[in-house]
Amino acid sequence: MKNTLLLIFFCFQCIFILKAQIVTDRPDQTEASSTIPNHALQVESGILTGYQDDVRQLVLPNTLLRYGLTDKVEFRFITQLEINNYNDTIMEGMSDLWVGTKIQLFKKPESNTEVAFLTHLSVPTGSKVITSGSYGIYSRLLLSHRINDFLNLGYNIGYDYTGIGLESQTANRGSFIYTASLGISINDSVGAYIESFGEFGNLERHMSSFDAGFIYQPSSHIQLDFSFGLGLNHDMNYTSIGCSWLFISNR
User: Fold this and answer.
1) Which terminus of the chain has fewer Cβ atoms in its 10 Å neighbourhood, N or C?
2) Closest Cα partner for 179 from 168, 193, 162, 163?
3) Can you list the domains of the chain with their CATH numbers?
């Protein structure tokens, strides 16, 4: 098994040249307004443990794969293994598959502002006890503004709609989503962030949350992260660690 993993890693090294600076969509809830380079592959993965609405959850791992179709368009693929505990009843399995894209709408060297659009389709492919049993659309407008060399403000607004394909759609009006994250560059390798995020479930119930975390980039193509979050007006908390890798094609 060890030799097989080494062979896979060697093949990746042959196909990809590791260079450029990694920019990820984790660990905060705010999706970055930048896309990855053309023909690049980026893997973002993490482990999360948390609690919400009487359900204890362990995710190991959550994995996002990003591939650059052009310098302004990327393909995205998300999956995760979930272990949920509700009243001592264990529900374990793979989550529904998410496929989507991120498109860069505005980015100029002379401007401190970037704008992008992101959308995902949720496909009910998950395990029986985990799947939502329906399709869903998740869309975000992504904006960021570089304040100076040390501070960056990113914010998202979006709308989620689930339950597509279900016979009963009574009282399902979707959810309005918002995030705002302040990124702080401590030095060339270490950064931190604080963030406010929330949603209006069914366009009515407001759930507000806060999180914060750190990132460490030992090289230009690897990022390690730690984050934690909690609900401000609802019962929720989580802790997460993760690792991301950027691979740039040599073609």
Assistant:
1) N
2) 193
3) 2-249 (2.40.160.40)
Q: What is the pTM of this model?
A: 0.89
Q: How far is CA 78 from CA 32, 67, 145, 198, 217, in A?
A: 16, 12, 27, 21, 23
pLDDT score of 59: 97
Euclidean distance between CA atoms 232 and 229, whole angstroms: 10
Question: What are 153's two structure tokens?
Answer: 């403000």
pLDDT band, very low/low/confident/very high, at 104 (cuts 50, 70, 90):
very high
54-87 pLDDT per residue, tens: 999 999 999 999 999 999 999 999 999 999 999 8
Bridge partners of 141, per DSSP, are 117, 157
Contacts of 1 (CB under 8 A, 6+ apart): none
Within 13 Å, how many C-alpha atoms sit on residue 164's CB side?
12
Answer whether 80's CB lies under 8 Å from 98's CB: no
